[in-house]
Input
Amino acid sequence: MSRVVRVAVIQSRNVLDPAVELDPLKHRDANLARALEQLKEAARAGVQIACLQEIFTGPYFCAEQEDRWFALAEPVPDGPTLDVIAGAARLHNMVIVAPVFERVRAGVFYNTAAVFDADGAYLGKYRKHHIPHCKPGFWEKYYFKPGTGGYPVFDTAYGKVGVYICYDRHFPEGARALGLNGAEIVFNPSATTRGHSDYLWKLEQPAHAVANGYFIAANNRVGTEHPWDIGHFYGSSYLCDPRGRILAEGPDDEDAVVVADLDLELIDEVRAHWAFYRDRRPETYGPLADQGE
Output
């Protein structure tokens, strides 16, 4: 028997020009309005689970190190953006993964994705564990603490969902942990540029899908954001099955709601053939957790 879930990953360019509009809250309001339009589009297509892109309420402000962007941060789940997203989840009977800039208290911030069930109930959050600080302008350690809370899996109305955020995808350990914790679909909302990571974009995550026997849904923003010009965010959001096959893919330079039907019964079929979970040797993996020098 099939167990088909219709899933969407959403990609979008930043609505306002950061070189012109300096108020973070105006960026938040404009991007939230755009996200609500795209969620409506997803609902019209019959989508049951949708994921917005990394820090969807703003530009990729980590291209600079400026205090003003802390104004974009809000509590999770009780911030103004997520109140609206919870309402959208209820309205559309849709599970929504919403990545935002989280404020815990003064001086403590995370890059976080909140997960809402189809009735609008808040199920929990994932905080990005691996925080980059590297050229050409991914200065995330200025803004975010490394995530806490492990690698949770959320039992939604339509399936078991895990989240890994952008730079996390370069680390197979957390991808395996999500599988061990029961994930059927792993979302990876991202902000990454051509020439920096595009050669890895459709290499690493299909490999995670195969190694762990689950579906991957990865999205990336689009466009070039001024005044930073750290590169072109190349979109190309996609959904991938446990055999590593790309089921649907978005364009590289346009806003899009990328939709595919995922038959979750395929997970059992693939894992019965490739018994990676049976044949694991966790008693030999201790050195993987060593700190090194």
Summary: The mean pLDDT is 97. The first strand starts at residue 4 and ends at 11. Residues 192 and 208 are 18 Å apart (CA to CA). The chain has one domain: 4-275.
